[in-house]
């Protein structure tokens, strides 16, 4: 999905034209307090300590390889997002400045909180509370095959 959206942004596709038509009516008129609050969740000062605590706990419990993978994945976020931001130079919602796509705050939040959840999942006793990322099959929650 990310590749399709990026392709639409850089190739002046229908999605970009729709975005550019809607943007003037949205810029400066949205709930900026909500956007700022959600943005704060993806900022490095908030997301990195959460991941650092999860990595520390995983190391303490002997999951060195998983902790290393989580840390390396987080280190890749700025290396991948910053060049894409420079390449696309898209303005963000509620702000006329450029460089909002792809969102570094969104990428930081997804990697930090997702990696923290995956690091801590082996220690969750209730099966329903475990993250489902990377598991095969529907686990009984999706449609049954062959029906």
Could you please describe the fold and organization of this structure?
This protein has 147 residues and is mainly alpha-helical. Helix content is 62%, strand content 7%. Strands 1-2 form a two-stranded antiparallel ribbon. The chain is elongated and about 50 Å long. The two termini are 29 Å apart.
Summarize the helices and strands and which ones pair or pack.
Elements: H1 2-10, H2 14-26, H3 32-41, H4 44-60, H5 64-88, E1 90-92, E2 95-101, H6 104-120
Antiparallel strand pairs: 1-2
Helix pairs in contact: 4-5, 4-6, 5-6
Question: What keywords describe this structure?
Answer:
single chain, 147 residues, mainly alpha, 6 helices
Short structural description:
This protein is mostly helical.
